[in-house]
Amino acid sequence: MNTAPSASPVAASPLQNAIPYLALAGSIISFCVGTSFGKHLFPLVGAPGTVAYRVGFSALILLLLFRPWRRPLARPDLFATMRYGAALGLMNFCFYMALRTIPLGLAIAIEFLGPLTVSLIYSRRPVHFAMVGLAALGLLLLLPLHQTQHALDPAGIGFGLGAGLFWGLYIIFGKRTGHIAGGQAVAVGMMTAALIVVPIGVHEAGGTLLAPALILMGLVTALLSSAIPYSLEMVALKHIPANRFGVLLSVEPAAGALAGALLLGEHLTIVQWLAIGLVVAASAGSVLSADQSASA
User: Fold this and answer.
1) pLDDT tens digits, 241-271
2) Angle 113-123/104-111 helices, nearest 10 degrees?
3) Please, what is the angle between helix 75-99 and helix 182-205, to 10°?
4) Rounded to whole angstroms, how far apart are CA atoms 137 and 173?
5) pTM to 2 decimals?
6) Contact 54, 225 (CB under 8 A)
7) Alpha carbons 97 and 156: distance in angstroms, whole number
8) Domain residue spans in the chain?
């Protein structure tokens, strides 16, 4: 009879425990830096041309990485994935159109209303109504109700709200592709997104998109704002509980505002920072309250 004590599991080192959180932080930073970098392309190829670079190159990278053609999709699954991709493409297009006239952090904050609304639709708990009300108050602070030098462009706000709408649809449609292999769904979805937005960018920028220097800038934008963040998020999602992941992701509007200030010179007013704070609090509160509901 073996009486030797069983070996206890080796505890993970502090560095191993920190890796998923560093990956998520890297994802947020990469997205904000990549989007800021992409904004430098606006004077050269316009916002539609920039989003064509981002989505087009991202689609090529994902197609080469996951090779979705190896496993044929049934027609209903193909339709569901293309619908998800259409929402993804239009979300990117509206977001970049918003960035033409409003700062990065504020555009992200306005866009966050999309997933907040989805959480309200799926929950209908009073606390979620309160969280959406908190976010709506943040939006109210951003609306150009009084014409001042800091008033935001109404068209930019409209595109930001459009990005939020399509982000919400992206979440809803994405849930309906959950049974499809993740890499395959994302690759086919991004290809569909490219088929929508790349022709718009080509129409806007024409042959300018073929300039080698601009192609390189577009590839860097795609890598920093899509390919790298997506890869790092996959690492983080495997090890960080969903509730904690959602709370941490909620800081993205503030990170975007900091990136805009440091890389683009987009300095916000106190009221605009307050609006971002309300959206961050609403997003984090929505995630936390959903988790409490699930554990009750």
Assistant:
1) 766 676 778 888 999 999 999 999 998 989 9
2) 20
3) 50
4) 28
5) 0.85
6) yes
7) 7
8) 21-295
C-alpha 127/C-alpha 125 separation (Å) is 5
Q: Is the Cα torsion angle 106, 42, 265, 152 positive or negative in sign?
A: negative
CB neighbour list of residue 117: distance below 8 Å, 6 or more residues apart: 132, 164, 168
Counting Cα atoms < 13 Å in the Cβ hemisphere of 275 gives 25
Tokens 């918003």 belong to residue: 98
Q: Which residues of 43-56 are buried (b: 16+ CB within 10 A; e: fewer)?
A: ebbbbbbbbbbbbb
Could you read off the pLDDT of 104-156 as tens digits, one per residue? 999 999 998 888 888 777 766 777 778 878 888 888 888 776 555 666 889 99
CA distance 284 to 152: 25
The structure tokens 């904050």 sit at: 109
116 near 286, Cβ under 8 Å?
A: yes
Give the span between the Cα atoms of 137 and 131, in whole angstroms. 10
Who contacts 283 (Cβ-Cβ below 8 Å, separation ≥6)? 112, 115, 116, 131, 135, 246, 249, 250
Half-sphere exposure of residue 34, counting CA atoms within 13 Å on the CB side? 25
User: Quick check: helix, strand or coil at residue 209?
Assistant: helix
Q: Two tokens at 153?
A: 């462009």
